[in-house]
Amino acid sequence: MIRNTTILFLLRFVRMGLSVFGLSLAARYFGISLERDVWLLALNFIVVAEAMVWGPVNETFRAKFVILKEELGEQAVLNKTKSLLLLTAMLSAVLVGMVMLLRVPIAKLLAPGFEGEQLQFLSLMLLVLTPSLLFNQFSHIGISVLNAYESYFLPEITSSVAALVNIASLLFLAPYIGVFSLLVAYYFGLILMLILVIRQLRRKKIAIFSGFNQTRMSDFMPFFLYALPFFVPYFFVQLNLVIEKSLGNLLGEGTVSVMDYSRKFIDIPMQVMSSVMLTLLVPILSSRFAKKDRTGFLQEFRQVFQLGLLVVAFIIAFFSTSARELITLILYHGDLITPDAVTLISELSVYYAWSSLVIFTYLIFGLALLSANQGWIYAVLGVIPQLLMIALNFLFYREWGVYVFPISLLLSHILSAVIMFLKFPGDNRRLIMPAIRYMGILVLLVLLSKLAITQLGMQSQHPIFAIICHLAVIGLVFLLLMLIFRAEELAYLKKGWRNVLQYGRK
Question: Which of 41, 232, 371, 394 could be joined to 285 by an S-S link, Cβ 3.0–4.6 Å?
């Protein structure tokens, strides 16, 4: 499993690189501006609406698909998936119609300070973005089915191709049609993704987009009932995102863009990690649990848990030492983003980087509960952090300003992460020492890397040169600490290095 996880991480990081490049293009053309704020408010609402309706099903689908396949057989679970697709089409159509009818009230709710042309522009963006719901959800289900059939890499390559098309569209259209190029690029990526996913399913002879004449609508119920406990936390997650953007809009023009840029740098690698866990860890753990293989369940979980902690440690060390250089390189394009804005985005990204440790712990233990058919515990504990975040943001957004958002994210998830660790469906005592050992790597990696970079004067170099030097220092310190702490992952690094040498000799 560790080999597949590593390959999947690499493929996802390629896609992450494409996302960062797209972010840089958006900064080059739109910077911190009202137009980009409007685009983000509209897109965020569409993402929120989709997640409220389909988020719980998307998160639990892989686990339930694997369990049903073991219990009922392949054809039965495929018929239930077709029923879910029919339900998706109908509910998405209803949702699209509602947003189109209520787009002006929704625009007023999203941006209380907007009036006149600004409000009309936001309502127009909502109108043209809403139909994307259908394309996106069909792709989600198709990719989840491919993952359940242990097809992990082709969907990733497909996603990267779609991301490249998205970037090309933005690159060629932005100088001519402005912010609408973001809209065209978004749709190009979504439609291409769906076409490629359907093609892959047909190649593997997985018939979920055909043969609907014998499908019963009620067959979707097992997926819905399995996901039911998650609708409450998902509602509060999406409500929290809308409130966060609305409060950011009250803090001044451009604040929403600053928040988006600063969080995006951490969200992208964290989305890589969470999607890897959903794609690979959940189906495997669900299969182990269905077969009552508790030893295998713990072993598979521990491997991904340790690897994830190492990845988080590297991310935190990099942002703690190199946030300003990275953000200057990617976002600083003349007058569109000022040096003061770069400084603020850099500071916020460091806060978000540290919050990623708590978020990762919360996610991986929650997914372990989900895989062990205890998703209701994950769902209940998912509500607590969202309520705490909403309360902290409302209480302190004026006093703390934009810093309240990463701080509330970190503080609000600690309690739930601890409780889910205690509720882990296995011998959690065997996870304590690895967690302590890898936390030691994290703390020492940050401290020693910052000390070495400061002493060597690498912070005053050109951003590209500084980032390369910083990565070299962090990498060397990282390997040294892995040797000292006897990290198990060293064995895979050594094996990979031997394979490279053998390939070179050939």
Answer: 371
- Residue 195, phi-psi category: left (phi > 0), alpha (psi -120 to 50), beta (remainder): alpha
Which two three-digit tokens encode residue 15? 């896609």
Taking the C-alpha atoms of residue 386 and residue 303, their distance in angstroms, rounded to an integer, is 29
Polymer length of the chain: 506
Note the pTM of the prediction, 2 decimals: 0.70
The span from the CA of 386 to the CA of 230, in Å, is 13
What is the DSSP code string of 490-502?
A: HHHHHHHHHHHHH
């998902």: which residue's tokens?
A: 234
Question: What does the pLDDT average to over 190-199?
Answer: 83
- Count the neighbouring beta carbons within 10 Å of the beta carbon of residue 121: 18
Q: Long-range contacts of range 385-393, CB-CB < 8 Å, 24 or more positions apart?
A: 385/412, 385/413, 385/415, 385/416, 386/233, 386/236, 386/237, 386/239, 386/240, 386/412, 387/236, 388/412, 389/240, 389/244, 390/236, 390/239, 390/240, 390/243, 393/240, 393/243, 393/244, 393/247
CA pair distance 21, 27, nearest whole angstrom: 10
DSSP string, 371-382: HTT-HHHHHHHH
CB of 56 within 8 A of CB of 230?
A: yes
- Residue 405, classed as helix, strand or coil, is helix
Distance CA 418, CA 414 (A): 6
Per-residue pLDDT tens over the stretch 14-73: 766 666 667 666 666 666 666 777 777 888 788 778 877 787 887 778 778 877 887 788
Distance CA 309, CA 300 (A): 15
In whole angstroms, what separates CA 307 from the centre of its chain? Answer: 17
Say which residues have a Cβ less than 8 Å from residue 109's Cβ, sequence separation at least 6. 242, 246
Indicate whether 1 pLDDT > 70: no
How many other CB atoms sit within 10 Å of the CB of residue 420?
24
Is 239 exposed, middle or buried, given 0-12, 13-18 or 19+ CB atoms closer than 10 A? Answer: middle
182-212 as b/e: b if 16+ CB within 10 A = bbbbbbbbbebbbebbbebbeeeebebbeee
Q: Is the dihedral of CA 244, 26, 344, 316 positive or negative?
A: positive
> At how many degrees (to 10) do helices 294-331 and 463-484 cross?
160
On whether the CB atoms of residues 324 and 460 are closer than 8 A, the answer is: no
Structure tokens at 223: 């997926």
